[in-house]
Description:
The chain is of the alpha/beta class. The chain is built from 16 helices and 18 strands. It has helices at 3-24, 26-40, 45-49, 58-64, 70-81, 114-135, 167-174, 187-190, 195-206, 218-232, 255-264, 379-393, 428-442, 444-450, 468-475, 493-501; strands at residues 95-98, 109-112, 145-148, 153-155, 163-165, 183-184, 211-216, 246-249, 271-278, 281-285, 294-296, 302-308, 330-337, 344-354, 359-365, 396-405, 414-423, 460-463. α9 (195-206) packs across α10 (218-232). The radius of gyration is 23 Å and the shape is globular.
Amino acid sequence: MPILSSIISLVNTRRLAQIEHFKQHPESVQQNELRELLSTARNTAFGKEFDFKNIHNYSTFAERVPVRDYEGVRPYVERLRKGERNLLWPGDIKWFAKSSGTTSTKSKFIPVSKETLEDCHFRGGKDVLALYLQNNPDSDMFSGKCLTLGGSHQINNFSNASYYGDLSAILIENLPFWTHFARTPEQSIALMDEWEAKLEKITATTIKDNVTSLAGVPSWFLVLIKHILKQSGKSNLLEIWPNLELFIHGGINFTPYRKQYKELIPTDKMHYQETYNASEGFFGIQDDLSDPGMLLMLDYGVFYEFIPLSEITHPYPNAKTLENVELGVDYAMVISTNSGLWRYMIGDTVRFTSLRPHRIIITGRTKHYINAFGEEVMIENAERALEKACADTHAIIKEYTAAPIFMDEDTKGAHQWLIEFDKAPASLTHFKEILDTTLQQVNSDYEAKRYKNITLDAPEIVEARHHLFMDWLKSKDKLGGQNKIPRLANNREYIDELLKMNH
């Protein structure tokens, strides 16, 4: 066993014991988190408004504090960005994570406190390594560097004392100095604004390093990897970094990219570890690489609630704590955090794959789905169907989005898929048939609407030109970082913009 990994594993022993504790006692750990949050924030303006001093249990908290989305938080954020203190959380908030979960022009700015940086995001990063080393004690990843691919930041327009940027950039900016010796590229390059120039710089500098691990969003990392291979003239990444062993990824589903990564990093010794690290907090880590579920991290200063997806439009939705969640149900996740987000609906939907320990998979977004005809197609349904269609036709997808084709006097409804292939199927018709059939198999609502074409016609697939999605993001000044393509939409806003550019 490598000496450095052995030393780090010893240091991690206490933390692994704490993780084991919350696995065994999730309810009591979460109750304690709620008490700590309420006690710490009781003298803030928000705490006084909702009388935190006299909230002694969850039921009172749920009765008194309403569930809210970003529009409900926005007025507080605007006050915070102007420098107001002790509003949602004690003290001042210096950093705001610019949400990358949408391509909307209306960006979200999520407050990030010192406590969230230290006790949530940085602790999450340490725990990723602790859990990886627990499963891979012979790892030699610390003999080299971690290549991180993040965004950029800039001073916001409201106060010279507060800053905003992609979460990844905020983390890089605030990392302890010693971590910079273990990561690449250097900070000035990592925080560059211009994506294409950043690609060139990262390629030129990191190609000389001994990179043993990668960390970032799979789609953007794929662009970087292909650029590095093109510039170096190599056929796969191991010819450049022979000691590469781990990709820590998150932000989007890895399934559509797994085949491409295996081709570009052709070794069974390569590991892929998923994390759930959002602008609002660090929530989950894949603790068993043979299990797709991520361990819900319960002691990061985050209190969790879950609203069944079927109830999120109700005026008074029935939120559940960990004691009452069930397997196989899609929930909208609600969080209260040590940055002062109180009963905040994050916008992600999750499903529990195990209880005690509580493991989750991300199934989609509360607003990113297709339900124009009662079919309730979630992102997870789409990913499974596309995976099957690709496997059976030997196709490789680079990017995609889908939206409804609405009914009119002459036509039934349908779904339109705009897909950019890295490797197109020999028959787009065959691909469509498999996609359609698999969607019916994994989604009974879709199957019912497709029955004898009574409500829904067969899907329509449009093949996108190369670089269409990249050009679209570039037109919105959203290249790189953690920006994501909206996979599913219940309207045609995104797909119509893309179709206009598809020539």
